[in-house]
Amino acid sequence: MLRIGTRGSQLATTQAGHIRDALRERGVECELTIVSTPGDRSQAPVERIGVGVFTQELREAMARGECDIAVHSLKDLPTAPDQRFRLVVPKRADVREALIARAGMTLAELPEGATVGTSAPRRISQLRAIRPDLDIRPLRGNIDSRMARVGADLDAVVLAAAGLQRIGVLDRATELFDPHRFLPAPAQGALAVEARPEVADVIAPLACRQATWETTVERRVLRSLEAGCTAPVAAYASGNTVTAGVFALDGSRQLVDSFTGEDPVALGNQAAAMLLQRGAAELLR
């Protein structure tokens, strides 16, 4: 019986459950194993504690032999690969950002000075560029607790559509943003399935060629910019094109451009190099 390591949140266990079911369909006997991480026990914003605290403990549990496979949100993983394990990217979910607002409002319909919850610098900077009048508030907790604040102390929250989709509440979104207008995080909507080398063949059939290409480009942009996954950096790859952006946190400046190519690593490097030429390093500081 193979053990699939996952955090204990509803979203994490749902994501890992999809992988468990996919493996069972292929005749693999497997079960979920809950791994507690320091991040799960902290009330600090993710941007302060770092998303790596969620993924690293899963990796260490796998290295200790407590589980054979681990399921992560790919956007939370460091861009440098962990040579101890094999990684595949399954078919990707919705890449878009979602607004959940009171009274069914869209972003344009929110009143002046409306309170919007998000702690991600990438989201904050893009929201301020579109609506500089908004009052952006920190947001922490699981999906349910974040959504529960809408109509209580917040007018709206911004969440990843993929998470809403996976737990079956995407219909709560009052607006889904065009990913070219409101750029998502690199690898948003994608899972990473890692395995110990001795069971790597088990996860190989889960790999999606398109999702792998897209996320390789997007994460290469992030890596080449030497930016962390909580930096105000966004990237969205589709077809053979990537649109990448770096933003000033106050929304006053944004560097966004699109690039086309065939090799995902070379394309990501090219996009990052051009953004650096235009002054990305200054915004990242």
From TrEMBL:
<dbReference type="Pfam" id="PF01379">
    <property type="entry name" value="Porphobil_deam"/>
</dbReference>
<comment type="subunit">
    <text>Monomer.</text>
</comment>
<comment type="similarity">
    <text>Belongs to the HMBS family.</text>
</comment>
<feature type="domain" description="Porphobilinogen deaminase C-terminal">
    <location>
        <begin position="214"/>
        <end position="276"/>
    </location>
</feature>
<dbReference type="InterPro" id="IPR022418">
    <property type="entry name" value="Porphobilinogen_deaminase_C"/>
</dbReference>
<keyword id="KW-0808">Transferase</keyword>
<dbReference type="GO" id="GO:0004418">
    <property type="term" value="F:hydroxymethylbilane synthase activity"/>
</dbReference>
<dbReference type="InterPro" id="IPR036803">
    <property type="entry name" value="Porphobilinogen_deaminase_C_sf"/>
</dbReference>
<dbReference type="InterPro" id="IPR022417">
    <property type="entry name" value="Porphobilin_deaminase_N"/>
</dbReference>
<dbReference type="GO" id="GO:0006783">
    <property type="term" value="P:heme biosynthetic process"/>
</dbReference>
<dbReference type="Pfam" id="PF03900">
    <property type="entry name" value="Porphobil_deamC"/>
</dbReference>
<keyword id="KW-0627">Porphyrin biosynthesis</keyword>
<dbReference type="InterPro" id="IPR000860">
    <property type="entry name" value="HemC"/>
</dbReference>
<feature type="domain" description="Porphobilinogen deaminase N-terminal">
    <location>
        <begin position="2"/>
        <end position="200"/>
    </location>
</feature>
<comment type="function">
    <text>Tetrapolymerization of the monopyrrole PBG into the hydroxymethylbilane pre-uroporphyrinogen in several discrete steps.</text>
</comment>
<dbReference type="GO" id="GO:0005737">
    <property type="term" value="C:cytoplasm"/>
</dbReference>
<dbReference type="InterPro" id="IPR022419">
    <property type="entry name" value="Porphobilin_deaminase_cofac_BS"/>
</dbReference>
<protein>
    <recommendedName>
        <fullName>Hydroxymethylbilane synthase</fullName>
        <ecNumber>2.5.1.61</ecNumber>
    </recommendedName>
</protein>
